[in-house]
Request: fold
Amino acid sequence: MKTKLADLLHELGISKVKLAKFLGVSRQMIYNYLEMDDLNKWPKDKQVLLFNLLGIKDAKDIDKIKVNTDYITSVEVKLNSLCESKPSDNSGVGSELLNGISVKNQELFIGIIDLIREYLEDNGEEGTHIINYLYHYLQAMNNTKELKYMLAYVAKETGFEKPMEFVFEEDEQFIFESVMFSAMVLYRSGKASKSKLAESHRRFVNQIEQKMEEKLSRTMELNNIKIQALKELGYTEMNENNATEIFEKIAEIESRKTAFKKIDEN
Reply:
């Protein structure tokens, strides 16, 4: 029973932190509840709350639940309605991190922190890799608009958002989602074999390696310019007192290099 319930909660996207808030218990108590092999061993009041949330009357009804978009939405509404009425404990998030953020966005921020913490605690080394990838994803998102469309696609595909909701550039988002859907249909069909896609993956690898080489080259170039700026200004290192002056000198050196490059090209 504990595996079935845990799997259902995972499929619904209900974190242990949010379930703990809904049931009015600690997160550690949720771990204890989920380790029990029979829901009837739960405290009666917590059973009732859980059954109401899941829309069932008995533990045996868990096997009958059909998870679809409507069901996910109904559970989410019930979960949010009660959780939102309870004061947040900020989950240990420092108040300085919440300064200047609206109440709505504070709840979103805290929810994300809770999920990340839970994921790191529950998934070992794999969880560390996944959160590290998520960190890089967020770093790259400002420079690659398609990553925003990817987030929207995943939220829709998993039933958390409406399929015809477009919060970004509608035409581009529509095209991206259509392409992604076609690609996922091919992937899940089993017809997209490794051998057939080897050439495509080789081009992917080459493109990434080229970008990494360009990034390394640019990093080395900036480091050399920084060294030159320090030398021209008579400094041996950058600190708070001279940083502004050094940055201005770096900009000046880059401008000179650009001007010389144009002269050479002509």
